[in-house]
């Protein structure tokens, strides 16, 4: 049988199963993302072994997550971020430090030749720090989808989660970049930091140039044209590529800032609706399924299984505690602090990307990859469930300002109604 | 430098260049498809050698052409086709036979190892027939746009062109299906014909089942939901895959019939708008560019250049003569017959789709792809120019009926305004 057309079948299967399982999880009041992840797990080598990752699936998944982050950037209200910036920064900072220490600690206990053998090429200390770095990641997309489905995005807690998640991303990327730079003895730390600084200067220059050109040429053009959507996509892809290849920053960071730059224009709503179609009809089912497909539950020793269980618990608790404490310090109620902490649990694609990078840089032994994938899957599945619980506890404070951070999300919400 | 992110750069470059060159060709009153093709030619090994085909580009291009054919199927008005059927059928039939013979004839002359070496895996006869089949294609979209601009779409000639173009598509697909089935030399002819028959029976069964289920469950659901678009996509992909793998029929044939089956539902407009976005924002630029990228003009010997020139002349003349004779037989005036024939010259994306299919099936040597791209580009550029000339000759008969065939095209026009 001709196998060169298998990608058509793979795509049909991914679209069908993510949607069917998504609708099934929606039936039992869980977000559709959980169904999409489960579809990947079931289809992949971990279960029925029908699908395996291919170049096509990998590349489309990568573009899928880039488009998701691009949309997240477009839908971010910069003015509101500036206002809620201080609180978000503190929540993110403590929410990064506590999981980092948690990961480091559990690494110290388990990362011994007598318990779990590691084939990492770096020192055990650096490997343990790296495990901590993986735990700092936050994948806000699942939380955003869940809050949107529940209609809780425009709450004080929802607002804080969005702001903190953005800063968390930036902190995580800085930490990742610094630690990976230790793996290569030839790379100088100063150069790495300079590159990160260079990226933000680059983004700043692009933002100023963009605003200048836009104001000059397009501010009075009301109609949304094909070319605007295509040029926006090109802009997003180029910033992703340049960030990754020239500045050593994750491509999704570039995509996010591309969206952030465009968010100031009048045409965001038109663009968001177009990229929403591209995303739900093609790219994001592939991305979510691909996470599940990547999981390979190889034969794990007892110590590795115990490590996986403890790591998962640590991953969940450290985010709730870290972000919760940060929120309490910033004057949020205990309920809200719990909601914020819960909203930050999901590690999703970010942790996988970080772990992947670490493994190829010799910072993470193969034995640790399985447990980390389990952490990602469980935290991603559990976040929507826990979010539903903690938002049921009591009444939530809605955001009074019409300029809330969630605003953009609610506005484009009608495109997503009736998934 | 990390090359694993090159697909992002490739995609950005394809989107940017196809759009910029598309807008440039539009400026000089030529269709944007020409610009998109030129972009691929310029970026590919034929010119600047910046891009080469990758698995990612190939797979996305394949899905792109599947979606194009799916949309073409959805936009076909079966009822209207039945009404104007007889005249349109005769025009289309003679307009298919004459170019087929023309292509076959010129193939006989040029397709010899002493003139043009072919690396096709089939017999020279089959390859020559395939060249003929490519010449049978008609891309009506360029003619429709030109006639609309001139205000001549609702003329007798305009009506005949539309009807004939649709039937031309179907005849072309049947011819393509039969010829591609013969590509494998080990296959028995009886079995091939049985498989093709089986495919049409299969499509018939699916169509009946679809109509039954649709009427039972969905006929009263007016709202267009995400799941409908996704399920329609799954339907299209599965029919493409099943057609190709189990019946040996081109995947685009499956996609076209999937669209034709869906065209009878109330939700076609909603679906068409969603797939239009997916197409213009991501898939179809990759498809059109990929055709150009596949062309290697360096390998064009003098014989190939002469072949390209003669093939272009044959392509233009055979359509004018074939369709013109058909129109005369059906009682159109000589002027109208000339107008109808001229309106069918453009080969556009349809010929590219067919050529692409033939090349990957081993029915068309690499040396013939360049000349065919040249035929497509020249016939596409020349059609609007010739149409303007032949419609200037004298007064035209307007269509009195408000139910003219052009109606459907006018309705879906708002999706395409402002490219």
Helix proportion range of chain A: over 70%
Q: How far is it from the N-terminal to the C-terminal residue of chain A, by CA?
A: 35 Å
Biggest interface, chains and residues, is: A-B, 47 and 46 residues
Indicate the overall shape of chain A: globular
Per DSSP, the total helix count of chain A is 17
What average pLDDT do the residues of chain A reach?
A: 82
Query: Could you state the oligomeric state of the chains shown?
Result: homodimer
Strand content of chain A: under 5%
Low-confidence stretches of chain A: 401-419
The computed structural class of chain A is mainly alpha
Key words describing this protein structure:
homodimer; 419 residues; mainly alpha; 17 helices; globular; disordered C terminus
Please summarize what this structure is.
Chain A is mainly α and 419 residues long.
């Amino acid at each position: 049988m001709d196998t060169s057309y298998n990608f058509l079948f793979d795509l049909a299967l991914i679209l069908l199963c993510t949607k069917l399982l998504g609708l099934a999880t929606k039936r039992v009041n869980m977000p559709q993302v959980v169904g999409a992840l489960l579809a990947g797990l079931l289809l992949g080598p971990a279960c029925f072994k029908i699908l395996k990752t291919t170049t096509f699936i990998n590349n489309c998944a990568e573009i899928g997550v880039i488009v998701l982050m691009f949309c997240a950037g477009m839908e971010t209200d910069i003015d509101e971020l500036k206002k809620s910036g201080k609180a978000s920064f503190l929540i993110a900072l403590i929410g990064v430090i506590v999981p980092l220490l948690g990961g480091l600690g559990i690494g110290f206990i388990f990362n011994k030749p007598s318990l779990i053998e590691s084939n990492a090429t770096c020192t055990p200390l650096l490997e343990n720090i790296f495990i901590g770095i993986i735990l700092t990641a936050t994948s806000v997309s699942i939380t955003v989808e869940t809050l949107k489905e529940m209609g809780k995005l425009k709450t004080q807690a929802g607002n804080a989660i969005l702001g903190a998640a953005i800063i968390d991303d930036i902190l995580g990327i800085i930490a990742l970049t610094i630690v990976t730079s230790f793996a290569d003895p030839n790379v100088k730390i100063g150069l790495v930091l300079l590159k990160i600084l260079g990226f933000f200067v680059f983004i700043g220059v692009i933002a100023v140039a963009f605003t200048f050109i836009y104001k000059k040429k397009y501010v009075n053009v009301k109609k949304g044209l094909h070319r605007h959507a295509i040029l926006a996509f090109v802009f997003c892809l180029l910033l992703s590529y340049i960030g990754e290849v020239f500045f050593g920053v994750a491509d999704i960071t570039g995509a996010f800032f591309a969206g952030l730059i465009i968010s100031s224009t009048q045409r965001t709503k038109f663009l968001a609706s177009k990229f929403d179609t591209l995303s739900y009809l093609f790219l994001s089912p592939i991305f979510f399924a691909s996470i599940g497909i990547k999981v390979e539950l190889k034969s794990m020793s007892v110590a590795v299984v115990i490590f996986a269980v403890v790591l998962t618990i640590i991953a969940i608790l450290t985010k709730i505690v870290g972000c919760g404490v940060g929120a309490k310090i910033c004057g949020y109620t205990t309920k809200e602090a719990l909601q914020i902490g819960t909203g930050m649990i999901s590690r999703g694609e970010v942790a996988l990307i970080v772990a992947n990078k670490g493994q190829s840089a010799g910072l993470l032994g193969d034995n640790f990859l399985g447990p980390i994938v389990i952490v990602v899957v469980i935290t991603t599945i559990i976040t929507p469930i826990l979010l539903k619980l903690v938002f049921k506890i009591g009444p939530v404070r809605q955001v009074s300002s019409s300029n809330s951070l969630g605003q953009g999300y609610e506005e484009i919400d009608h495109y997503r109604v009736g998934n």
